[in-house]
Design brief:
CATH superfamily of the largest domain: Calcium-transporting ATPase, transmembrane domain
CATH class of the largest domain: Mainly Alpha
Low-confidence stretches: 1-19, 21-34, 139-147
CATH architecture of the largest domain: Up-down Bundle
CATH topology of the largest domain: Calcium-transporting ATPase, transmembrane domain
Mean pLDDT: 80
Number of domains: 4
Radius of gyration: 36 Å
């Protein structure tokens, strides 16, 4: 952090105790720092070291030199994916590599039709994946468009506006409410200054700022003498000296952390690569074995090489990348309709396997908007309708508000510097601007039909005593019929101490010691609920210049809360039902985190919120400490580095981790997590660029919808992988067994390729775009180590492959030796038997326990469409002369077709019998 440091001469050391640098030293060595704790240095020391006068600022020559030395005040732009890079990315999967090799081998053996067919598959897959990811990249780029920021600085003795990138260390910055700090700065003077640092630190409340130095060990969230880049000024004004710019700022440090964090491959990418590795060895083994066995059996080498190639083609599920890409693209489209923008195609499925969601509090679980939730006056205790009511409170309504409560809100609205204007988009409503606390007071007044414009029209303001850290109160003086009305709000301890009267039942009476203690206790009770508490008081004066903080009449205590989002409780409950742990990680205080956690049903009364200071680095954690962290459901005062370490800790235990956030401080963990989820409305540009998904509506509920979509996609991918591989295994076994035993080949190489590219793909695609069922949310998340196809799935593939093989070989033998069909005729029988068997095999993919006629397969309209398309293609292949000749198909007569019909139905019946037996013997269904 800050001002530069380099040891110069001894005389310099005597003049500048902190070893300040000369201008020449700054130019020669801009990366050396004067003080790592600039927030603890005096203003005079910082000004002296940066060689600048606060009354005049830097001169033109000095600005030019420092701009050359330090560069523009900009963050390094996130690396963007080029069009060419995005295109080549589609060829990185091992299955695509297998397809390319298969195409090259086909061309080598002059099988041009086969090679071209495989190339068509590659092109289709590439176009779909490329166009889908390109649209996501463009959408993310549109979200990241920012307006140019101009800032006010003091240069050469004059105030002027400059573009933020032109700022240099040593510039004197002038800010006021509504501005955004463009760099890290040490405050010189502050006038009732407050800043919203929630995007950087996670602190939901505005932080009061002062020119007084802090202790060197003060954590980032409590450095009241500093303004940080990207934080907004909510109240007051200040002058400050720029100490660091660009990538040297706190935000720049986080950006570097993000850049050095590696993207994690998605579970789907890992699973598909594992499957591809297995297929490589299976393909090589089958090709070598069949070629060798056939040659030893006396068959021609060229024929056996061609047959081995056909089997290699059969072993590779050419349709798998196409169907997987289409399933992911459709899921990506459906998520976008639900306000979840995915910027990486393979990430669509990741949420389905997520076991832990690490969520920020401010703006994610809460609205990042203060609200008045309690009001305690002498006559009653009130709750506003949107806050959970205490049995001892009265719900406040516009029609039934008491005079005492109305008077309290009158004061809160009068003693206020926030302002509202008519909302052009919502007739009859207002938009408010200013300090969040004061906005909350104006909103509470407006809800009760108490408006500042109406009050000040009859009671114009003539004087204001601004809030300061000494009095901890604010007062405004207004003309009234009785003279001057004073409206006061501030810290309860100070307002109660300054009050000698108590307003009750429309009149004031003396405030005795017992009553004073009662109000102090009420303040503590509200504070224990995690509320920010203020007190309001008033009095009448005859002289507008009199002391406003004497002999006040206490009117009420007001409790404010950054409320949880309304839908959060249900969303968290759905996550728990789905076996997903939700863990809150916030930079806010422990008490606030506990209260919000309980409000959204994330925490129980006995749950402990772990403070960031208790989070040790991985190499210092023992097993007990790590288990305690793993069991925790909320963390407070966590730093960006600690969020990153917690995500890595969950990942070390084999869990798939999703991380939500909107602030700059969330970015490193967003990138490291298996699924980074940023807020589209409240989220910072840095957070969006580091994430895999952006919630366009900032709703946590959208995550639950995306989880169901992700689980549906995995279930669909598993279904069509089962379908494709069981079909392919049968093809391998059919040709392999015939070759091994020296018999005629039941299928020709081009016929195998035709089946793989046509009749396999359409049903698989139909399975891949199924809508899924809500029962998927009742299961626990899959472990990250669980493969796409486990033991039970491989058993399914082999068993059904054997059944299909037996049926096709039996039909081939019967046609050849019982029906006395020619070689081409018998091959035609086996071809159509296999084709129709594979089509009917889709119905064997229904879940165990589902209805025979009503299940997720029969209710998928795309399945019926796929079957119709495939049957038409198979009919065309027979009736069109040129087509039938290429595929070596011939007329097989009525007996041949009857044989095809019977033989192709038998595997379907066998499959349904196996489903019944699994149900009968309570075999767990993982299909």
């Amino acid at each position: 952090m800050s001002v530069f440091h380099e040891k110069t001469s001894d005389s310099d050391d005597q003049r500048h105790p902190q070893s300040c640098v000369s201008n020449d030293s700054i130019k020669q060595n801009p990366t050396r720092l004067l003080s790592e704790t600039v927030w603890a240095e005096s203003v005079a020391s910082v000004l002296d070291c940066l060689r600048v006068q606060p009354e005049t600022g830097l001169g033109p020559q000095e600005i030019s030199q420092r701009l050359t030395t330090f560069g523009p005040n900009e963050l390094a732009e996130a690396e963007t994916v080029s069009i060419i890079g995005l295109l080549f990315k589609q060829f990185k999967s091992l299955i695509m590599v297998l397809l390319i090799i298969a195409a090259l081998v086909a061309f080598w053996f002059d099988d041009n039709a086969g090679g071209l067919a495989i190339i068509v598959v590659i092109v289709i897959n590439t176009i779909i994946a490329f166009s889908t990811e390109l649209s996501a990249v463009k959408a993310m780029a549109a979200l990241s468009q920012l307006e140019e920021i101009r800032v006010r600085v003091l240069r050469g003795g004059h105030s002027q506006h400059v573009l933020a990138p032109q700022l240099v260390p040593g510039d004197i910055l002038l800010v006021e409410a509504g501005d955004v700090s463009p760099a890290d700065c040490r405050i010189i003077t502050a006038n009732e200054l407050q800043a919203d640092e929630s995007s950087l630190t996670g602190e939901s409340m505005p932080v009061s700022k002062t020119a007084d130095g802090c202790e060197p060990t003060t954590p980032l969230a409590e450095r009241t003498s500093m303004l940080y880049r990207g934080t907004s000024i909510t109240h007051g004004s200040a002058s400050a000296i720029v100490t660091t710019t660009g990538m040297n700022t706190e935000i720049g440090t986080i950006a570097n952390l993000v850049a050095n964090t590696q993207d994690e491959p998605t579970p789907l990418e890992i699973n598909l690569n594992i499957l591809a590795h297995k297929l490589i060895w299976v393909t090589l083994g089958i090709t070598a074995a069949v070629t060798l066995l056939g040659t030893l059996a006396g068959k021609e080498l060229e024929l056996m090489i061609e047959t081995g190639l056909a089997l290699a083609v059969a072993a590779i599920p050419e349709g798998l990348p196409v169907v997987a890409t289409i399933a992911l693209a459709r899921g990506m489209y459906r998520m976008a309709q639900q306000n979840a923008l995915i910027n990486r195609l393979a990430s669509v499925e990741t949420l389905g396997s997520t076991g832990v969601i690490c969520t920020d509090k401010t703006g994610t679980l809460t609205e990042n908007r203060m609200s008045v939730v309690r009001l305690i006056s002498a006559d009653a205790q009130y709750s506003l309708s949107h806050y959970e009511n205490d049995p001892n409170t009265v719900t406040m309504h516009r029609e039934s508000i008491s005079p005492d409560a109305r008077r309290a809100l009158d004061i809160a609205v009068l003693c206020n510097n926030a302002h509202g204007a008519a909302d052009a988009d919502k007739p009859g409503s207002q938009q408010f601007h200013g300090d969040p606390l004061e906005i909350a007071l104006l909103r509470a007044g407006a809800d009760m039909d108490i408006h500042r414009a109406t009050l000040t029209a009859s009671q114009p303001k003539v004087r204001e005593e601004a809030f300061d850290s000494t009095s901890r109160m604010m007062a405004t003086v207004h003309e009234s019929a009785e003279g001057y009305r004073v409206a006061v709000k501030g810290a309860p301890e100070e307002v109660i101490a300054a009050s000698t009267m108590l307003y009750n039942q429309s009149h004031s009476s003396p405030l005795d010691t017992e009553q004073r203690n009662h109000w102090i206790a009420e303040n503590k009770r509200l504070a224990s609920e995690g509320l920010r508490v203020i007190a309001v008081a008033e009095k009448q004066m005859t002289n507008a210049s009199s002391n406003v903080y004497e002999d006040l009449s206490l009117v009420a205590l007001i409790g404010l809360l950054d409320p949880p989002r309304e839908e959060i409780r249900d969303a968290i409950e759905q996550c728990h039902v789905a076996g997903i742990r939700v863990v809150m990680m916030t930079g806010d205080q422990t008490g606030t985190a506990k209260q919000i956690g309980m409000a959204v049903s994330l925490l129980d009364e006995n749950d402990v919120v772990i403070h960031g200071s208790e989070i040790l680095k991985h190499d210092k954690l023992d097993s007990n400490d790590e288990q305690r962290l793993l069991n925790a459901r909320a963390f407070s005062r966590v730093t960006p580095q600690q969020k990153l370490e917690l995500v890595e800790m969950y990942q070390r235990t084999g869990q798939v981790v999703a991380m939500t956030g909107d602030g700059v401080n969330d970015a490193p963990a967003l990138k490291k997590a298996d699924m980074g989820i940023a807020m589209g409305q409240r989220g910072t540009q840095v957070a969006r660029e580091a994430s895999d998904m952006v919630l366009l509506d900032d709703s946590f509920t959208t995550i639950v919808t995306a989880v169901l979509e992700g689980r549906t996609i995995f279930s669909n991918i598993r279904l069509f992988a089962l379908y494709l591989l069981s079909c392919n295994v049968s093809e391998v076994m059919i040709v392999g067994l015939a070759a091994a035993f020296g018999g005629a080949l039941p299928l020709m190489p081009l016929q195998i390729l035709f089946l793989n590219l046509v009749t396999d793909v359409f049903p698989a695609l139909a399975l891949g775009v199924g809508s899924g069922t809500s029962r998927l949310m009742l299961a626990k998340p899959r472990p990250s180590t669980q493969p796409l196809l486990g033991h039970s799935q491989w058993i399914f593939i082999v068993v059904h492959g054997v059944v299909i093989t037996a049926s096709v070989l039996a039909a081939f033998w019967f046609a050849l030796y019982q029906l006395d069909l020619s070689g081409d005729g018998a091959v035609t029988v086996s071809f159509y038997t296999l084709a129709l068997t594979q089509l009917w095999h889709v119905f064997n993919l229904r879940a165990t326990g589902s209805g025979l006629l009503k299940n997720q397969v029969t209710q998928n309209r795309y399945v019926w469409l796929a079957l119709l398309v495939c049957i038409l293609i198979l009919a065309i292949a027979m009736v069109i002369p040129g087509f039938s000749q290429v595929l070596s198909l011939t007329n097989i007569g009525s007996e041949g077709w009857l044989l095809v019909g019977v033989a192709s139905t038998l595997p379907l019946l066998a499959g349904q019998l196996m489903i019944y037996l699994r149900l009968r013997f309570a075999v767990r269904d993982e299909v």
